[in-house]
Every structure is written in C-alpha cells, then in structure tokens.
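Cross-posting from the modeling subforum.

Setting up a comparison between two proteins and wanted a second pair of eyes on the formatting. Protein 1 (sequence, then structure tokens):
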Amino acid sequence: MKKSIPILLAVLLCLCTQTFAQNRADELMKQAQENLAKKEYIKARYLFLQAYNAFATQENYAQAVKCGVNASALYHRENYYKEAFELLRNAELLVRTGEQKLKKDFPDLRFRINKERLQMYISLRNPTRAKEQLNRLEETAKAAQNDSLSNDFLYTQASYYYTFGMNSQGDTAFKKLIEQYKQQKNYAKADECYQNLINIALRANDTELMARTYDKYITWTDSVKALTAQKELNALKKKYNESLTIIQEKDDSLSSKQHIITGLCVLAAILAAALVAGAIILLRFILLTRKQKKAIGIANEHNELKTEFIQNISAQMEPTLDTLDPKLPGVQALRTFSAHIQELSELENSLSEPYEMQEENISAFCENVMNKIRGKVQENVSLIVNAPKLNIKINPEHLERILLHLLENAAEYTPAGGKIGLDFKKRGAHTHQFIISDTGCGIAEEQRENIFKPFTEVKDLTQGDGLGLPICALIAAKMDGSLALDNSYAKGTRFVLELHT
C-alpha cells in the first residue's frame, strides 16, 4: 500500500502536466487569432510559432500544422520567404514523423502545407515551382478521396491558372468545381466561388475574364433562383395536395373543410405575394447588373484613352519644344519629362516581356556601378560595397540603371562625412537582394506611400519630375523582382531591390 502511493502521485502529476500543456497551447493559439483579427501581424506570428511548438511537443499534429501554416503565411506576408519555407519544411517533417508513428496517412495536413507553398510561389511569380506544388496537391486530394479536399484543389487549381493568364485551363477547372457544388447542392459555395473569381479578375485587371465571369454568374444566379423557386413551389403543391386529401377524408365535417380551404387560400396568397416580390427583386438585380457592366465598359474605355494619350504626349510636345531655346533649364526639364513619360508608358505595356539575362560577377559589377558616382558625392563621403565574388544571372544594363539612379539620389542627399553603401545578399536559391543605403536626410513619412507612384503631385520640373523611382520599379518588375523602401531604417534612406532568377 505504501509503495503504490508514490506511483499514484507520479501518475497524477503527469496528468496535470499534460493538461496544463494542452491548455497553454490552446491559449497561445487563441491569443494569436485575436492579434491576427486586430491586424497585429508580428505579435500574431510569434504566438502562432509558440503554439506550433507546443502542439508539436504534444504530438497534436492537426493543430500544429494549422498554427505552422498561419505563421508561415504571416512570414510570407512580410516577404520573409526563407523563414516561411523553413517552417513549412519542419511542419512536413512533423507530419511524416506522425504518420510513421501512428501508421496512418494525414493527406489533409499535407494538402494544407503544400497549398501554402503554392501561394508563396505564386506571390514569387514562379510558375514552374508553383506547378510542382499544384501537382502534389492533386496527388494528395486523389489519395484522400475527400470531397472537401477535392473541391479545395479545384478552386486552387483555377486560381493558379487565372493568376498566370491561362484562362482556358482556369475555366475548365472552375466549371468542374461549380458542377461538383451543384451536384452537392451547395449553392452558397458556388456563389462564393464566382465572387472570388470576380475579385481575382479585378486584381489582375483582366476585363475579359471579369465580363465572362459576370455573365456566367448572372446565368448561375438565375438558374439557382429558378431551382429554389421550383423546389418551394413543389413543396407548396405537395402541401396543397395533402390538404385536399385531408379535406376528402374529413368530408363529414363541413366546418373543418371550410377552415382548411381558408388556410389554403391564405397560403396561396402568400405564395403569390412571394412570387411577385421575388420577381421585383430579380428585376432590380438585372437592372443593377446591367448598370455595373456599363460602368465597367466606360471605365475600360477611359483607361484605354488615357494610355493612348500618354503614349502620344511625347510626340505632341516635340514640335513645340523644337521652337524653344534648348539651353533653357525649363526646356531641358520638359524634354526629360517627355522622355520619361514615353519610357514609363512603354514599360507598362511590356511588363509581360522579360529581359534577357546573362551571368556576371556580382562583386565586380557592384564595384563598377559604385565607381560611376565617385565624382558626384560630397567631401569625405565613404562609398562602401559589400558583395561576394559570385556569378549570378542578371540583365546588367537595366540592373545598372536602377542601382545608378538610387546611388545618384543618395549622393545628392548625403552630406559631407556621410556613408553610402551597396550590399548584395543571397536570400534563397533563386532570390537575391541589392540594398542601397545612405546617411542622408531620409524621405519624409508623408511622401513614402507615393514615391513609386507617378503623377501623384504637381512639381517644378526643373527640380525633377518624380518619375525616376516609378520607372525603376517597373524595370524591377520586368526582371521578375520588386523595389521597396525600407521604412524601418532610421539613419537615412534604404532601398531594397529583390530579384528572382
């Protein structure tokens, strides 16, 4: 009896510890979700990571994967792709360990992990790697033989195709998804899919896809309303027939028959009123849809006219500028402005045409670019290049254009005795960063939001037209990259050019 007491106490202590750990993990996940709802993303990410580790320790694989994927999505949101991919690899290893230990498959957990990887490759505009993940999702969904995963895969597949401009394949996947929801009579999900597809078209500025989706959506809505109305009518007819049968069976009671007939008349009146109200609502919906289609058409027409005007503005200004003294600062500024407008328009129209790439030694390349601004800096300004002797594929002409513009700006605003740096960092197998920093006066907070947007303010053109950074951002996009201002840098100005090769 005395020997059994310590054993019982140890078992009780173990159970209490497990209960506390479980409660702690649940509390961390709850706090993370609350911070995510408040848009406090950094805090939410930290809490999701803590919850992931806690659930992983408890071998609660479903909750661990849920928290791990949420944390990865928040890394991905802030462009920390390396950390996001690493976390997903750990989650996948955890699932594999659980499958081996429990001797059962977790296709739903693998599906969730691979779906997040797919979203990141789509954001990175890497169709090849994204297609690999899509194939893995398809294999997982087939192996699971689960309607929910099958529907999720079809929607993800359609989104992938539409994102990369493969509209015919997207239509095929989307049609198959709608048919599945129709067979399952899940009309709400089908309606949600149409609205999501319209949002995809809006973000991609694909007017053709938007118009086709609106037409299909209207047809679908009308058919669903017709099916619902027919179903309700059949139900009412069934009730009506049942009522008539009751009347026949209780023909011996005239008063009962009168009450039933009165009730049927009221029911018929309600049905008629409902049908009239439904017809009015349907008519208003059709009229509103037509107005929206008309508004979209007008907006597209105005956008085309704006683009055509911008393309022709340089040619329209040239004859007038030729009559003026080319030595005047104002004339020179107008000529530069005209050239920038033309270049900006050409870049916008050719974003889908990538530049040719070639291998370059990045150290020599960065040193060469930095040397070109040595005569433009203030006295005693230190020029620092930090780049390894590494060969990567770049477009040297256009990459130099971006870096030179940023370095010349840094030279202009960095006072004597300051520092200007050009750093190269490898962020992944196919991701590289060029970081340009200075110790100048920095960019005013109210101006940061619009520095990459053209024509956001009226300026004296002799002091610059403000189109340099928008042009650089478009060139970066054509090189499958992005140009961003580091708002966390407080010692001056820091730009980050990220390229994917």
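Protein 2 (same layout):
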Amino acid sequence: MGKVYLVGAGPGDAELLTLKASRLLAQAEAVVYDALVGPAILSHLPSHTERIYVGKRAGRHAMTQEEINQTLVEVAQRCKGIVVRLKGGDPFVFGRGGEEMQALREAGLRYEIVPGVTAGVAAPAYCGIPVTHRGVSRSVSLITAFSKEGGVPELDWEALVRLDGTLVFYMSMRVVPIIAERLIASGLRATTEAAIISRGTLPTEQLHTAPISSFVQGYLDYEHYTPGVFVVGDVVTFAQDYAWRSSYPLAGQRILVTRSQAQASRLVEILQERGADTTLLPTIEITPSHGWLSPEALRKPNSNTCIFFTSTNGVRYYIEGLQARGQDIRFFGDCTIAAVGPATAKELARYGLQADLMPSSDYSARGLVEAWKDSPMRQQMTHTILPTSPLASGELREELASLGLQVSEYHVYDNRPIPYTKDELRELLDEGLDWITFCSSSAVHNFMALLNLHGLQGYATRVPLAAIGEVTAQTIQAYGLCVSAMPTEATLTALADALEGKASRL
C-alpha cells in the first residue's frame, strides 16, 4: 500500500508551492487533485504519474466528499509508492483535509500532512493588502461563508464586528450582499472598506474594492468572481497605493505556450514574471533515441572535428547517450564545440563543457554557419558532428557539406506529437488568448497537425502568433499564416521583450 500525503497546492500561483510539495509531486505514483489545482501546478508532474480528478466546488460537485474519501483510500490501497492528495490552498483551512485524514486512518493507511499557503492571506497580499497591520488591524479571522446546507452559516456577527480586525470570507461570492448586510446590521461602519478578490495570486486576478455598504445595494450577483474571497476591514485601503501587480508589463495578457513540457518552464516563468497569464499546450514530447549509438558515433573525435550543437536537447541527449555507454567529459578531448546560442552554451556548461564558437547575435543555423566562416578554427576542420532530431530542417547539414566538410548527423532525440482530443484542444484555445508562441518549427508542425486533425484551422488565424526566430517564423508563414511578433535575437527573454513591446502599444 502507498503512503498518502495531504498536500496544500497553495492559492494558484505555482511558485507558491512549498519545496516539499514540489518534491512529492515529482515522485508521486498517483495524484488525486481538485478543481482549484491549475495546469501550471499539474505541469510539475512527470508524464507517467497517474492523475485522478475529483473536482469539487460549491454547487458543482464532481464527487461527494464521501466519494472522494473512498477514492483516496482505493488509490492508496492499490499503489505501492507515494500518493499525493493535492488540494487548493491549505488542506486544513476549509479544505476538508481533516475528514480525509480521518478516512485514511480508519482504513489503516499511512498519511502525512503538508501545509500550503492559504488564499485568505496570499490573495490580499498579492493586491498589496496586509491582513494585519500595526495601528490598523490586530487580528485576522478566516471564515467560511458556506454551510453544509448550502446557505450562510449561523455566525455571531456582533462578535465578529467587535474584533475590530480583518475578516476574510471563503466560498462567499454567492452571498456577499448577505454578509455585508448582516455585518452592517451588527454595528460595522457602512464606510468600512471591503474587497472581492477573484482568482487570487493568478495573472487573471481581479480586485474590486468599495465601502461595504456598496456590496449591499441592489444585491448584485457576484458569483462570476468565483473562486474568490471577500475581505472586510480598513486594511483594504492599502490596495489603492500598494497593488503591485497591476503595473506589470504583460498584466492581463493571455499567452499560449506550445513548447515541449520539459522545456516550457523557463518561458512560462519569464512571461509570468511580467504578469502574463500563461497556458501550456505542449505539442511535442522529447524522448531520447538510442539507435544512433553505433561504433562510429562512439569513436572519440579528434582535433579536426567540430561538434555543432543547435539546441539544449541536442546537448542533453548526445552527452547522456555517451554517458550511458561509459563515456565522460574526456570523450571530447581536443575537438571544437560550437553552440547555436546562450541557452545551448549554458546547457553545455552544465555538463562541464565550454563552447568554443557561438554567433554574436543571430542565434540560428544560418548565424552559426556565418560564425563558422569567420572563425580561424575553420582552416583545420575536416569533419563535423551534428546531434539533432529527425525533424531537423537539414539547412545546417547542407551548408556545412557545401563548405567541403564531412558531416556525421546523429538523431539523438525524437520529437513525438502529443495527442489531444477535440474537446481538450477547444478548452485550451477558447480562453480569449492574446498570443500563441512557438519556439521551434516542430512545435508549429505539430500544432497545425492537431488543428487540421480536429477541423480547428480557424484558430490559427484568430490569435496573433509569435515566433522565437526566423526559421520558426518561416515555418509559420509556410502555412499561410502571419507572424505578429518576432525578436531580433532568438532567445526566450527576447521573445518576452517582443511581446511586451507589442502590449505597450495596445
């Protein structure tokens, strides 16, 4: 039987995962997760991890709590390793983690609790609102606004008012006017500031502040702000001057990232640091190829050989393939090493190797050839090695061969398309996207193949497309599509800069 970890996923921002939560997700045999656990957090899971969805929100239950408890017990009983029960926020703050803990103990299963960041503190913080502040609020109360029967719970409203602190109501969007009315009726000043914070800590976060009396008038429907918290107290005034996220250059921009899941994290991180709401749609899965490891490929290169690395994948799978056959850094001896750009050079450094040659600005196959032509090392070279994939364009191989070099091309990794159902694809694309980004020609080919397979070609003309460099842009244009953003330098940071420049002109 497996051991179950009741893990808090935090309020939404994947970077608020604890180190322990991240480690457990990477090691999990199975993950049982809620509706409030977003794709950015699920991207931490290895592809082989079993995923069990038990989405549960007020009024829209995929499973009852009893069914979730039973599912968790059954999964733990058939698994042998780590089972993660992943819950939004903190499992013990209105997450019913206590009930699941009891069910696990009754079934004789081992368990452990991994606390998470709770929305009632984190969501206000992301809006510049401290839930406690000297001279303003000496206490904070976390309160559920949803009873088992479905209405507002019976609370001592006068006692809450007497606390003279900050009140944070969870699961409250349907009953915000009732909460405001009862607090005012119990003595709270009608001018006390209050706030609805929807999708707190995410790039799509929304903040609506007003005196609490405004939330009573007209009994407006606030349910469209779900999931959200209702914050009441004078600390809400801090949001006027200290809401730090609204000034981010890509705030409000919704960007689809099509890079492979293993490589997407850095681009997602860069875009989110600038305030973008990113959705990951990996169209390719990178897997190692082993057929290239012939006696010739394992022969140590001499000083007349240059190895051209055109991607981080080429570096990783070439070196790891050699290592699997007992080779180490000494294999590279006196040969020359060329890298297409800074990211590839950085990946080489991770294995203790330094690039001898790299383009100064044009980080592409063409730029690499031009850098090679200008290099004094060219004179002594007779042989080149190209670690690549079967989908490589062949441009670099042909250029080097035309220069009189003997070229040995090894397909050290494969780009396998990831299948999506039509509904899965539509759900990702029907999100009011502002951009779709492409970092390789293979991502373009696989994305278009998916659209063609499901008859969704129109999506590629509705959303602006961004390419990391000229080769990728040419692939997009070959499909008769327009490229709306492309950096002058083929790097992830430059791609984000290009999107930022476009956003600033909107």
